[in-house]
């Protein structure tokens, strides 16, 4: 039976004002960024479920029975508020389970968690990701900063492999350039096999009966440029990570 992976996040809507002399008009656009990751993990034999942000806000599991149906949970470019503010709580003041507590307990009881970088994971832009203020912080191998943690590198910056690890099997030492990442601080117990600048790019840890990983750049543009997404090591690294995280 194939292992099941849930990805929450990786979607956005844009509303644009076009001004052309005396006239203006508006356009809207809905986009998702799961394509590369989904293809890589499905080729690796995993069953992949994608919950865009607006879907995850209401349909991300509220109970442990629902969450343990997945062998690995991936959070990518999704802010903590999306899970803390379901519509019934925000509009009707309904008391509902805290899904950030649920994710922590899921890991402690044997689940697997991967947080991937982006403008709304870790701390994110203007610190709006807010994961540092949730129980999810307790089961991540990095400490999230309380401030805007984006490290933008329009010139490109190259990750550096500093030690061997099963998650890096089949990956060469030469990584493609990336265009940014979330700055974090490795916890004392973390394994950090890949760095970028002076910070973790990949950090791994074990918490309770489960495992977690922080991959601090994106899995899609813009921080992950086409050269990274089409890199032969892209599929390998994410499939290796899934295997290590799931196989406690």
UniProtKB/TrEMBL annotation:
SUPFAM superfamilies: Class I glutamine amidotransferase-like. It holds the Pfam family GATase1_like. InterPro entries: Class_I_gatase-like, GATase1-like. Residues 4-246 form the Putative glutamine amidotransferase domain. This is Putative glutamine amidotransferase domain-containing protein. It comes from [Clostridium] citroniae WAL-17108.
């Amino acid at each position: 039976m194939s292992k099941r992976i849930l990805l929450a996040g990786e979607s956005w809507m844009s509303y644009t004002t076009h001004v052309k002399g005396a006239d203006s008009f508006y356009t809207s656009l809905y986009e998702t960024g799961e394509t590369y990751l989904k293809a890589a993990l499905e080729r690796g034999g995993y069953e992949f479920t994608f919950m865009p942000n607006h879907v995850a806000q209401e349909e991300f599991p509220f109970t442990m029975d629902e969450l343990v149906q997945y062998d690995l949970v991936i959070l990518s470019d999704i802010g903590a508020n999306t899970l803390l503010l379901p519509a019934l709580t925000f509009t009707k003041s309904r008391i509902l389970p805290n899904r950030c507590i649920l994710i922590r307990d899921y890991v402690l009881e044997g689940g697997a968690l991967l947080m991937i970088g982006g403008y709304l994971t870790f701390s994110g832009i203007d610190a709006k990701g807010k994961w540092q203020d949730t129980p999810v912080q307790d089961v991540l191998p990095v400490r999230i900063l309380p401030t805007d943690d984006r490290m933008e590198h329009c010139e490109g910056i190259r990750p550096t492999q500093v030690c061997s690890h099963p998650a890096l099997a089949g990956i060469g030492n030469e990584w493609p350039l990336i265009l940014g990442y979330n700055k974090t601080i490795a916890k004392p117990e973390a394994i950090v096999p890949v760095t970028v600048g002076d910070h973790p790019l990949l950090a791994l840890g074990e918490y309770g009966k489960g495992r977690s990983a922080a991959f601090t750049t994106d899995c899609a543009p813009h921080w992950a440029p086409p050269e990274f997404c089409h890199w032969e090591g892209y599929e390998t690294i994410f499939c290796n990570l899934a295997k290590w995280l799931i196989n406690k």
